[in-house]
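User: I'm putting together a teaching handout on how multi-component assemblies are represented. Below are the sequence lines for each component of a complex, exactly as they appear in our records. Could you produce the 3D structure of the whole assembly as structure tokens, so the students can see both representations side by side? Please keep the chain order the same as the input.
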Amino acid sequence: MKKVHIKSYGCQMNVYDGQRMADVLGQEGYVETETPEDADLVLLNTCHIRERASHKVYTELGKLRDLKRERRAQGRETQLVVAGCVAQAEGAEIQRRQPAVDLVVGPQTYHRLPELLRQARGGRVVDTELPPEDKFGHLPAPKPAAILARGVTAFVTVQEGCDKFCAFCVVPYTRGAEFSRPVAQVLAEVARLAEAGVRDVTLLGQNVNAYHGEGPDGRVWTLARLMHRIAEVPGIARIRYTTSHPRDMDDELIAAHRDLPQLMPFLHLPVQAGADRTLAAMNRKHTADEYRRLIARIREARPDIALSSDFIVGFPGETDADFEETMRLIADVRFASAYSFKYSPRPGTPAAEIAAQLPAAVMDERLYRLQALVEEHRQDFNRAMVGRTVEVLLERAGRHPGQLAGKTPYMQAVQIESDSHAIGDRVMVAIERAGSNSLFGRPVRRELAA
Ligand code: SAH
Ligand code: SF4
Ligand code: F3S
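Assistant: Of course. Below is the structure of the complete assembly, with chains in the same order as your input.
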């Protein structure tokens, strides 16, 4: 039996792609293994978003070259593949820096993997084309056993690529132009997942709310319309979507947060910064107050919604006063969680050419303060759950025997003690305590739920 080890870095779309690559390789007789040592094929599914992420690839490749040598000495061959966004951005350069790499394959040609692997047996191969055909239409659907092994929550990429060109970001170059999968293809995949036991789907896209897929009626469907249809798929109890751009939060989508019970009250809506100068320099195409007003409208539609965001500190030219505006925005919105990063100049992006790059110490200080404030809000949000009863979808076994772990509608991790519930159940849980990363509670009968 041939074995493949897939390691995905970066965003959820890479996680999804990794699963789809496992599915296509499954057809070729490969089974997945957790360890590279016993793998005949090692695939790094890489991320190019920040400098550190792409450097990590070369460190990892150095170790894998050694592993490949050791295995060869034992008479076993190993194919080494680099996929994902570093593959797309650096192409043949990867093999110049690490000759042990057999195949470099960009995110848009995963459906060609079997053929490319065969070619690579005869010599090194690079494929970073952006082909006209839709890779998703050519990738095999996962088998029920594979779905089951991945759990009751699943990702489904519905949109790929980005036309926004934020000044700091490599995604428009590594993933190409915006593309939406047809509605029928998405529905077939969701139905298949639900039949195998999936209860919670997260629709993915670099700009998922810009979704504009072809509907069965031949018209263009929006994300809101797609989600209304997905809500009708038997078994699907929870729907989420990520990542959204503020400019694409239209009225219909906001209304879905009011009208669609399956749509979970959690929204990741990155704003990046709070000063209008910075937002303009980033090419985000909206102001801080426009974002505030948007949040107010979303909260009007769904008052209990939990919000999260991404932030970049130290964008070129960001002054102390600009940064204080970011802090003010955070204080105004009070996010339930947020990711934050020091600005990292990326080759080929406009922001990397700006002269006013900031010293590392300034970025460190700003990041520290920002994260402390977000953490305060996150803890407040979690503590406010104590004493409330919420629905929890049980997703996996907990840390200790007899424990089960799941998520609230607001994406908070919850641990319960129970021997009468199973993974995939939705239970009402009375929250008794908030730890630093999890809530703890006790299952109550649904009728008692307030
Ligand atoms: N499409 C999504 C995010 C894609 S990248 C969006 O529009 O929000 C995920 C996050 O990485 C971004 O939101 C941003 O906060 C961060 N990021 C992207 N490029 C970066 C860079 N050059 N330096 C630091 N952080 C960056
Ligand atoms: Fe990058 Fe901006 Fe596109 Fe998001 S919207 S992927 S941050 S260019
Ligand atoms: Fe990274 Fe590519 Fe995702 S650069 S964040 S893996 S789209």
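A couple of points students might notice: The chain has four domains: 2-127, 141-264, 270-384, 389-443. The chain has a mean pLDDT of 96.
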